[in-house]
Give the backbone structure.
Amino acid sequence: MRYLFRPPATDATGLLALPWHQPLEEWDDEHLLDVPQRGISRHVVRFVAVEGRVYALKEIAEPLARHEYALLAQFEAEGLPAVSVLGICVDRPGDQQAILVTRYLEYSMSYRWLFSGPQGERSAEQLLDTMVVLLVRLHLAGIFWGDCSLSNTLFRLDAGTFAAYLVDAETVERYPSLTRGQRAYDVDLARERVGAELLDLQYGGLLPPGIDPLEVAEGLPRRYESLWEEVIREEVFRTDEQRYRVAERLQRLNELGFDVGEVELITAEDGTRLRVDTRVAEPGHNRRELFRLTGLEVQERQAQRLLNDVRAFRAYLEQKTGRPVPESTAGHQWLAEVYQPVVDAIPPELAGRLAPAEVFHEVLEHRWFLSERAGRDVGTTKAARSYFVTELPKTPQELTTPSVIAGRK
Amino acid sequence: MASIEMRNIVKQYGDGFPAVNDVSLDIADGEFMILVGPSGCGKSTLLRMVVGLEDITSGDMVIGDKRVNDLAPRDRNLSMVFQNYALYPHMTVFENIAFPLRLSKTPDDQVRRRVTEAADVLELQEHLDRKPANLSGGQRQRVAMGRAIVRQAEAFLFDEPLSNLDAKLRGQMRTEISRLQRRLGITTVYVTHDQTEAMTLGDRVCVLRKGKIQQVASPRELYEQPVNLFVAGFIGSPPMNFLPATVEGRRLETPFGAMELDDRRAAAVSGRDLLLVGIRPEYFEDASIVDEAKRPHGTTFRARVDVTEWLGDQQYAYIPYDAPEEVQNQLRELSRELDSEALRTQAIVSIDSTSRIREGREAEFWMDSRKAHVFDPSTGENLTRDAEAGAELTRLAEEDRQEQVEEARSRGESISGGDRRGAEVA
């Protein structure tokens, strides 16, 4: 047998002891982790927990495994929203297929849970929009998915909104850029898959009555087209409007979750033509900034939220001490005195239902809500205590991320 | 269903490289056409232009009588079969087949009729009310085909559909696809790099090389009357043996001795210098057991056997031979292009499985000269190809096909009859 791992792969060494020579289907339960609420797969997929980390193992033909391994590695390097690949195991005895190992996307949710959950109706629209953003991002990067479906997408909460990730790259083809036909084909396939997946939930009695699978599916191409148009269109406006129109366009793209790499303005007699080069990578300046100040790794909107809190905390410090406080000092102190105490106070039985940064975000929301009702600032500690009793228990237990479950064993 | 016509199709990429170079191909209504060739020959690009995934640089793509160059994939009404099919666990097999119709809001009675018809052809009737969880691998693939059938597409398209299946399922699916295509009589374009798939599935096979068509013919014609060295080397497994030869009148001198050509072939090669003789493995035999009636049609020679390979019902012997450098280079180039290990300067000959010829020893072989072809080593052209005989083989294959389709229609198995389409319009 042969194992191919991508460095840094210190976490991979713990995996080597697993029974790779056996068909995945025959692995002992002691190695496996039961992950509820998954999508549909054509292959045998199993989850394992090793040293507190969770991995997804998929049995597929070797050429496909190699193809997917290479592509996912590429996507990660480019900052595209996709699961992170660890490696592959090939040349297994008895002509067995290869196994592809990806890192489990912690705190992720599948559509099966999201649609059939308590807020299914509300999230249907949001999920579709999130998925369309993912598809547009991939298409901008010249990626033909060939199998865009809800089953192949994972969703994560990011400060109350969703972010979508590509999970399955088996059918992906990479080109310098896509043709109109390729994009149309991908969108059409997505429309059909989403429709079928929702119909399936409906047959299983898992879809809230307010959602019509056909209608949702029909809406997907329209959503895609308008976002695509928004992202790539060239605009022409009067030169005296230039400043305001450019800022407006950039803000709109940011709101849609895109970054702009380059702005090109061409002035001509009929006005100014604006062309923007939309970046395919997820926007990440807040994430990087937060990491620099605190060492925390969170998602972009969460980072934005947390950074605001760091800034408020710094202002508070400066006011209290009467002198300037360097931002790095404020960052470290905020981590130790504000953020960590909240995270540490999460009751153990509720741990893992939401990512720590998402919990913190919700505590801030809750604080705002309580403060408004009380007519004064109630403070983070009190807000957290109340949140853990009244709000966090409403998040269903099924959402507990597998690594936390594994840690409890 | 419809015919597919390609007229002078060119696909040129930004760097000017022609991935498909002036391809003209007519695929008849109901025909099973294979596009085959080694990687980089342009077969997948061609298929993607049929589907609408790839823009056509120049030329016309005509489906039915409609030019589709500028149509979106969806509007071409073609069906890519089994591409990444998924089975939905809460839906019955019936609904798993029906859902494309549900999504297009097809009336219930039509859904029922089309799904039932498809299930009849696919022999899935008994499973229609069940959930897909317990279907076998083959049955799952048939559900995927069912989806393609109920769409009533103009044609089925397959892009290397079997390449990632295990050997057993691959064989099973090959039979399944072939049977299905015959019963439905639906126009089918199938891309593969595997010459066995090409030979067993296609009514006609289009062999491509570097973006250009080499030959379009029935599998038989490709095998017996290849147009050039490339086709001859690509079709057949183990491949055709190519021996260097010089000509003198009707006699060809080869490393395995001299052979006599008939008048037609002698005339075709007269006046040439260095040549390549192509002889398929099965035209050899262990001289000690060759049928006496056949013996006069060939010549015998002695050679040292490098390796023998006994497979129970067949046996192969590997016989090295010397060749001038020019020929060696030509063969090396060819085998590189064909992704083949086999075409080295050693002949692979088929001998009776009872033969006692041993490795490392010298033995006497018999070689049938009747079906040898002679190639020009520099251009690769088959100098002795009998075009008429070839065309006859393809004509016979076409007759067989018509007959099979008629038979399926008369048995009422086909669901592509005129009355279904009539109902569709009404």
